[in-house]
Amino acid sequence: MTDLTQYSGTWTIDPAHTRLGFVARHAMVTKVRGSFNEFSASMTLDGANPSASKATLTAQMASIDSGNADRDAHLKSADFFDIETYPTMSFATTGVKQADDSFVVLGDLTIKDVTRPVEIEVELDGIVNDPFGNVRAGFAGQTEISRKDFGLTWNVALDTGGVLVSDKIKIELDVSATKDA
């Protein structure tokens, strides 16, 4: 288990090297991947007591990018995220469990006007001194949510059975953060 005591403190998320992504099944046969490109996040690490560590994130829903402008416009509409009414998505930790170099981050995810608890499995990819004089940490995480739990119910039944958009959505995080001086 990595000793994190020396890394206690506030960390700044590096948006240029961080990805807040998602994966959804489309038409029951393929995967659509996307991300939210504009977000702000903060993280405070308690190395002596990792369970007391905290993180918050706010993503701008208008920054959704699935690689297709028409699909992105539909995702922004009232059928899905209704970004005119709900311009942000947020997450705030409620706890952290540590096992070796992996963690389970517990928190509240809010999409639209619905807040639900989620558990994100997170692995510490490493902590280094980067060439710019920063202490930099990398984390990778993932979880799966039911979009219906957040009021995202739009769908189309397929003639062959199944639906156009899966209920289960994978959330993928690749986080790079630098320790504040």
Question: What does this entry look like structurally?
Answer:
By secondary structure, the chain is mainly beta. It has one domain: Lipid/polyisoprenoid-binding, YceI-like (Lipocalin, Beta Barrel), CATH 2.40.128.110. It is built from 1 helix and 11 strands; from the N terminus they run ββββββαβββββ. Strand 9 and strand 10 form a beta hairpin. The chain is elongated, with a radius of gyration of 18 Å.
Give the C-level CATH assignment. Answer: Mainly Beta
What's the mean pLDDT score? 93
Tell me what the CATH architecture is: Beta Barrel
Largest sheet: 8 strands, antiparallel, barrel
Level of helix content?
A: under 10%
**Could you say which overall geometry the principal axes of the C-alpha atoms support?**
elongated
CATH superfamily: Lipid/polyisoprenoid-binding, YceI-like
- Percent range for β-strand residues: over 45%
Radius of gyration: 18 Å
First-last Cα distance: 25 Å
Q: Give the number of DSSP strands.
A: 11
Name the poorly predicted regions.
Answer: none
How many domains, in number, for the residues?
Answer: 1
Short overview:
This protein has 181 residues and is mainly beta. It has one helix at residues 69-76; strands at 9-13, 19-26, 30-36, 39-45, 54-60, 64-65, 88-99, 102-111, 114-129, 135-146, 165-179. Strand 9 and strand 10 (135-146) form a beta hairpin.
